[in-house]
Design brief:
Blueprint: H1 34-37, H2 39-64, E1 68-82, E2 88-95, E3 104-110, H3 113-120, E4 125-133, E5 147-157
Parallel strand pairs: 3-5
Antiparallel strand pairs: 1-2, 1-4, 2-3, 4-5
């Protein structure tokens, strides 16, 4: 006789041939779902690969989308290569509309070494910088500002003090 609390069959119970599984078949209890079999791979994809793809798309769109472009004229105050891991050229230009007035400082980034060298060569001269504004650049690794200079043109020398 079987104990109603103990689910194990007693020795006097006769197994029914209808309840047995055929040889070679797996029971539903041992069958594992796709998610359970590949849990590690799915976790890797969800937490590492997907954010990497999202960041790469964000960077590609941010670096290629130009919100505005134009030119600014003034005197370059400084250009320096900055950064701990990602080195970028960062600079400041003094823009003054009226001689003798307080200049407005405009910060910019340069991605090209040749353009940065051309800007450094214009020390003491009035220049026009051609720039593109890219406001959705994801990190400061590509540049600390949203203004990226792509060209420089000399328009005059610095005024001489009298």
């Amino acid at each position: 006789m079987r104990d109603p609390i103990d689910p194990t069959p007693s020795s006097d119970a006769v197994p029914s041939p209808l309840l047995e599984e055929p040889a070679g078949a797996t029971s539903s209890a041992t069958k594992r779902t796709f998610a359970r079999r590949h849990w590690g791979k799915l976790t890797l994809a969800a937490f590492i690969i997907a954010p990497t793809i999202v960041f790469a798309l964000w960077a590609a769109i941010g670096l290629n989308f130009i919100y505005s472009s134009g030119e600014r004229a003034g005197f370059v105050q400084k250009v320096s290569r900055k950064g701990w891991l990602c080195k970028t050229w960062e600079g400041e230009m003094a823009i003054s509309t009226i001689p003798g007035s307080m200049p407005q400082l405009w910060s910019f980034s340069v991605r090209s070494d040749s353009v940065a060298a051309a800007i450094e060569a214009t020390n003491g001269k009035r220049v026009v910088l051609e720039y593109e504004e890219k406001p959705w650049v994801p990190t400061t690794c590509f540049g600390e500002t949203k203004y990226f200079v792509k060209g420089v043109r000399v328009v005059g020398d610095a005024p001489q003090p009298q």
